[in-house]
Design a protein that fits this description.
0% strand; mainly alpha
């Protein structure tokens, strides 16, 4: 039995659900305007908030469905690196620090890189296989 493909599936769906939850929080709880205001308070362009919400929701759905998993995972990495640089990096390592440290988003970014390396896993809708020579 090829258990690796089920491990990749579990990782893929878990990552996708986390992105749906975070994108949904920004969309339904804080609202797009509230999220844009927060981004602006960080010195970021307010319009970036709308792109962030869209990338998190679409990327989360792509991961869950297994739709070009490798590409979706790589597209989502900069979202987390941006969160580290703009929000969490100055708060220390541990995520239980006031304002949240960078431990959790860094681990999440690494998990996305692992997903990109191992691929789609079982039950993927559309594979993003690398060429055989890679």
């Amino acid at each position: 039995m090829n258990t690796e493909k089920y491990g990749a599936l579990l990782l893929r769906v878990s990552l996708g659900v986390l992105f749906l939850v975070h994108g949904g929080l920004k969309l339904f709880v804080f609202g797009p305007a509230g999220t844009a205001g927060y981004f602006a308070s960080l010195g970021l362009p307010a319009a970036l908030a709308y792109a962030d919400i869209a990338v998190e929701l679409v990327g989360g759905l792509a991961l869950i469905a297994g739709f070009y998993t490798r590409i979706a995972a790589l597209v989502l990495v900069p979202v987390l690196l941006g969160a580290i640089v703009t929000v969490h990096g100055g708060n220390g390592f541990f995520f239980n620090a006031p304002g949240g440290g960078w431990e959790y988003p860094a681990f999440w970014a690494v998990a996305l890189l692992v997903q990109a390396l191992i691929g789609d896993g079982a039950y993927a809708l559309r594979s993003s296989r690398l060429p055989a020579s890679v």
